[in-house]
Amino acid sequence: MLRLPRFRYFVPRTISEATAMKADSGSGSVFVAGGTDLYPNMKRRQQTPAAVISIGGLPELRAVDFSGDGVAIGAGAILSDLENDSRIREAYPGLAHAIAEISTPLLRNMGTIGGNLLLDTRCNYYDQNFEWRQAIDFCMKKDGQICWVAPGSPRCLAVQSADSVPVLIALKARVLLVSAADRREIPLEDLYRNDGIDYATRKPEELLTAVWIPRPDGWRAAYRKLRRRGSFDFPVLSVGAAVRREGPRVEEARIVLGGVASAPLRLTDAEERLKGRPLDEDSIRDAADAAARPSRPMDNTDFSFLWRKEMTKKYVASALRALTGAEGGRG
Ligand SMILES: Cc1cc2nc3c(=O)[nH]c(=O)nc-3n(C[C@H](O)[C@H](O)[C@H](O)COP(=O)(O)OP(=O)(O)OC[C@H]3O[C@@H](n4cnc5c(N)ncnc54)[C@H](O)[C@@H]3O)c2cc1C
Ligand code: SF4
Known about the structure:
The protein is an alpha+beta fold and 331 residues long. The protein is 29% helix and 20% strand.
């Protein structure tokens, strides 16, 4: 059995207590929400914080507020609550679908949306226990010097694998980051950096407090996820696609890939192929062809990377078809 290492555990009662505790405890501490990513990582000694600040029980972080110009979702909102929230299912069916694809019902009862947005990046050479990693002399993401996927690479290529991220970026979501000294709001896509180790632009002292999604206003999004097991598995290719149509024509489109790089990848060429055209088989084929080119998965997750690249076309096409209603089902 894998055991947790020793660590100090803090339980703040408010957001300001949480950020003050972080400021006091410094770089050796991390926040934890549901713990479904952090604690397994600690058991495998991939993360070894001296102190953990638990924000999972903060009521301020649980709210889902539709009273403004869109919805503000507290970072501590539980995934299964969001998946079953009739207002989210009605206004953002593609997001409800993406959340329902995360891990398993039990883990979704613990996991939070904030923890999903800040999920650690993944790689076959990293997602192993301590002894396995020690046997290959570790890798540069933790305790080692080299990247086993691309030994010449100056940076880690571990993969962004959070299910909610592509759809939320497609829907123009923004996030609120708060520290003891500051607060700032940024587009969700700016939260990510294409570096498997330093994958988030969040400063270590910042607490992610909320994600805000604008009112749908004609936008509709869909999600598609490639994984080995339909029951549960991380995505090894994922597509979040959103379009805004006026009449039959696409006015704006946003298409985002997950699972192919250390950051989510916007497919701006593919988006351009849809603009001003009806969303039909011709425009969908053009967009899907343009999507495959920038998709360059690495050989560090499940399935052959060449096959995953090939599947990009089919998954983008499928997500876009879902927006025509042709494939039916969930968004
Ligand atoms: C068996 C298994 C299968 C899984 N399958 C999937 C899957 O298919 N798809 C998927 O997307 N995920 C999957 N996960 C990962 C995980 O369950 C989810 O990503 C979940 O949403 C993480 O949320 P959490 O609240 O538990 O995060 P935590 O473990 O609490 O935190 C995750 C990271 O975010 C940081 N953090 C959390 N909240 C905040 C905050 N508010 N501010 C600042 N930092 C914060 C933590 O310090 C930590 O680094 C799986 C996990 C397991 C164990
Ligand atoms: S991509 Fe390379 S450095 Fe990053 S986790 Fe995998 S083997 Fe390690």
